[in-house]
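Data deposition worksheet. Section B asks for the primary sequence of the deposited chain exactly as it was used as input, without tags or linkers unless they were present during the calculation. Section C holds the resulting structure in token form. Section D is free text for depositor observations; keep each observation to a single sentence. Incomplete worksheets are returned to the depositor.
Section A, Depositor: J.P.
Section B:
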Amino acid sequence: MLDLRYNSTSRVYEAPFQMKANNGIYLIDDFGRQRATPAEVLNRWIVPMERRVDYLSFLTGGKLTAPFDAFLVFSTNLNPADLGDEAFLRRIQYKILLHGPAENEFTRIFENYCATRRVRISPGLVDRLLDKYYRRTGKPMRRCHPRDILNHAFNLIRFEKLPEELTDDVLDRAFESCFLETEQQAAAADSPILPSTGESASDYWSDRLARIPTVSGTLALLASLRDTRGKYRDREPEREFGEAETERVLARLHSEAFLAWLNMNLQQQNRDLLCYFSMDSSAAGNARERHDWIGRLVPAGASAQERELFANDFALLLDRIVPKPEPREEFQEPRLERIA
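Section C:
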């Protein structure tokens, strides 16, 4: 998403996000949790951050120099030292640590959220919550905690049809279901053991697809199980799990694999497709039927925009990996003439 993206249909390049964000703010939230490693992203940003210009490449091999005037912001909950080395962190001149809220701010957020839900709270309720779960335990407060605890409490009231009122008991139960237990509890009493229901269709197919190392191979397998009517069929799992459940699971997995492909950049897609072709020699032959083969890989629930994006990227990669065969000239046999 940080490089030019070429649309082979309109023959127009789409600008990357940092170019669209010029004269504005470009915020990368939850940095370090993307598919690309932090090192890959940071290496991509080092030159633009240092020189305030960016270099974009065309498919023909040419390069474009573009201004980099975006106000770049990285937001993360991870330790910055684990995301980049000193050379990169030096280029980010301002680092801001956001501390947790104070008790008065926590209380104000709690009260405001209750007001938006039109739920009345009794005096001292928030103070008792703070004393029991934060002051005594030393648990750090976060600005999202009031919303999370209250949502659990409201769901509990609605599910058990309790009075629309916050009590200490409801908040205790909401807090316990919202956060992980950090202390070893007493041994639980004996509970009835339910008989095993066996492997589900989802487990069966998850195990089977886990053996395929490429997203392209996963897409090709799932697409091959769809008949001309658009129904997913596989006789062996159908005997165990039923036709309806098998079709539902296969349709969901096909959509997930399709979205996983779209979320990869062109370089990752190129590597994935090359690996797939190297493992399945017949796949490259099928790829020459470009339009039909690409159409079969797209799940039925994909939007028109997703279909177009997938078709453009896939066709572009196939042109690189599996060139279209040159048309062969018809062979004409030599004519023999009888000379008197």
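Section D:
The first strand starts at residue 5 and ends at 7.
Strands lie at 5-7, 12-14, 25-28, 53-57, 63-67, 71-74.
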